[in-house]
Design a protein that fits this description.
The chain has 333 residues and is α/β, with parallel strands linked by helices. It has two domains: 2-125 and 301-331, Alpha-Beta Complex (Quinone Oxidoreductase, Chain A, domain 1); 127-277, Rossmann fold, CATH 3.40.50.720. The chain has twelve helices and 16 strands. The strands form three sheets. Strands 3, 5, 6, 7, 8, 15 and 16 form a seven-stranded mixed beta sheet that branches. A six-stranded parallel beta sheet has the order 11-10-9-12-13-14, with helices on both faces. Strands 2-1-4 form a three-stranded antiparallel beta sheet, with no helix packed on it. The longest helix has 14 residues, at 126-139. It is globular, with a radius of gyration of 19 Å. The two termini are 14 Å apart.
């Protein structure tokens, strides 16, 4: 089958378009014929080797973390899906490879595709949708009447997180550029901070939760807007000891993670707030709950551009600029 392949860990190196062996179907696996694949900053980071210490792949490997497609074969133990089902997923770490014609996915990672959106729109959802869900629902326990600051509101995670937070009943502030102010307002943001001309840490205070996806300076400033007992959740790092433990890292790597996050954890503790790093995980059941919200019109995808499959490298390059609104998708069929 045709696929886009990383031949080695190297920054900015184009993926090779070539033939790869057909996926091997395990007893609990579903073989999906891929119609569309979402493109994420995580794809570039994996290619660059940023996470190879704790998510090692042996080159050559197929890249890609988001998929929407049709079930074409079932493992002997699969009971949740049938042939012909339209599905979507973020395959679990160690089993990625959605920049290809087909992929075998554990049935626990899959959900039925929302019936109200296209394959391309569905492919834009899993990674960012699960990230938003695990940050706001699972980690923050966001409740009606609380206040949350979501950084980079026009990005992939931000566009979904704003909508989910409003559904949960929170007051939502977000940061974005001048060009995207109208977009985040349409998604439901109550307070919009134009980072080009305004300083969010001078304008906001008393917040319950901050979801950070930006740099270390933004992370430190975010402490200023939280009230005592607030939660600072970062999806851009630094990793913390709880993450290292959940990943089953060895003693040395756990100490590295402890040192990487020591500064921000100490600053957070001094202010009476809690810092945590979130690295989302595949979860078909949670994705099914997101499906229900999409089909009810509560959450809608935001797709900047759809590329033909042959142009996957160009799609990845656009994502790496950090200027895409919502998600970028490649279409196979």
């Amino acid at each position: 089958m045709k696929a886009f392949i990383a031949d080695r860990y190297r920054k900015n190196e184009p993926l090779r378009f070539d033939e790869m062996p057909e996926p091997v179907l395990g007893q609990g696996d579903v073989l999906v014929e891929i119609h569309a694949a979402g493109v994420n900053p995580l794809d570039a980071k994996i290619r660059d080797g940023a996470f190879k210490a704790f998510i090692p792949y042996r080159p050559p490997f197929i890249l890609g973390h988001d998929v929407a497609g049709t079930v074409v074969a079932l493992g002997s133990n699969v009971r949740r899906f049938k042939l012909g089902d339209e599905v979507y997923a973020r395959p679990r770490d160690g089993r990625i490879g959605t920049f290809a014609e087909r992929i075998a996915i554990d049935q626990e990672d899959l959900a039925l595709k929302p019936g109200t959106i296209s394959m391309e729109e569905a492919a834009s959802i899993p990674l960012v949708g699960l990230t938003a869900w695990q940050a706001l629902v699972e980690r923050a326990g966001l409740e009606k009447g609380q206040k949350i600051l979501i950084h980079a509101g026009s990005g992939g995670v931000g566009t979904i997180a704003i909508q989910l937070a409003k559904h949960l009943g929170a007051t939502v502030a977000t940061t974005t550029s001048t060009a995207n102010v109208d977009l985040v307002k349409r998604l439901g943001a109550d307070i919009v901070i134009d980072y080009r001309s305004q300083e969010f840490d001078k304008l906001l205070s008393g917040y319950d939760v901050v979801l950070n996806s930006l740099d270390g300076t933004t992370l430190r400033k975010s402490l200023e807007v939280l009230k005592p007992g607030g939660k600072l959740i970062s999806i851009s790092g630094p990793p913390d000891p709880d993450f290292a433990k959940a990943q089953g890292m060895n003693w040395l790597l756990r100490q590295v993670m402890r040192l990487l996050s020591l500064g921000i954890r100490r600053r957070a503790a001094a202010r009476g707030v809690h810092y945590s790093f979130l690295f989302m995980r595949a979860n078909g059941n949670q994705l099914g709950q997101i499906t229900a919200l999409i089909d009810k019109g509560i959450i809608r995808p935001v797709v900047e551009r759809i590329f033909p499959f042959d142009d996957t490298n160009e799609a990845l390059a656009l994502v790496e600029t950090g200027r895409a609104k919502g998600k970028v998708v490649v279409k196979l069929r």
